[in-house]
Write a structure and sequence with these properties.
globular; 7-stranded mixed beta sheet
Length: 129
């Protein structure tokens, strides 16, 4: 599968991505999409989400997840969290996970998104640790 290619975030200091985690059983491959949201006003754009706080783990020990039509490598810790958090059926679960929702290869984007992290966590319906 081809590597996922991030689309640039729309201009504006309050845009960010949310991972829409598709349902599946423990052994199914992890599949998700990324949607763009705005922090303000968060209530008006119907983007309720949960924030995930986790230890990244060893960056050299990764597993693939499907994002749209591509794939991304994530640490085993994030992979395990996503396996545990996804629903077995029903609507996708919306989660903000920094390693996927921020383009880690774009230093400019990463810098801006890291500055927004406090507000992203505040905007989440709750935080899963």
């Amino acid at each position: 599968m081809v590597r996922y290619s991030y689309s640039p975030l729309p201009p504006g200091a309050d845009t960010f991505r949310i991972l829409s985690l598709h349902p599946g059983t423990k052994d199914d491959p992890i599949s998700c999409d990324l949607i763009t949201a705005r922090l303000s006003p968060l209530e008006s754009n119907d983007t309720t989400f949960e924030a995930l706080s986790y230890c990244w783990g060893d960056a050299s020990n990764c597993l693939p997840i499907r994002v749209g039509a591509g794939s991304l490598l994530v640490t085993r810790n994030l992979h395990a969290a996503l396996q545990h958090l996804r629903r077995p059926w029903g609507p996708p679960r919306r989660i903000w996970a920094d390693a996927v929702c921020i383009n880690q290869d774009d230093a400019t984007e990463k810098g801006g998104q890291v500055q927004m992290m406090r507000d992203i966590y505040r905007g989440a319906s709750h935080t899963v640790v």
